[in-house]
Model the fold of this input.
Amino acid sequence: MRPATKLKRASFFVDETTLRRAQKVLGVKSRAEVIRLSVERVIEMEEFWRFMEKSRRTVKPGSFAAS
Done:
């Protein structure tokens, strides 16, 4: 996760059950951490899927080393 450079206070409505589930899955203590980490993960996954779409059928099998 990238270090937070600038935080901004925001107010919005979130389903309490969903927030608690995310908090448990992510293993964080505060609700603010849940929101920040969730948004960061959404960004990372969106960037990943965009990369996958762009590189579809252009990356040859075996060109990446298994980790």
Observations:
- The longest helix spans residues 31-54.
- The chain is about 50% helix and 0% strand.
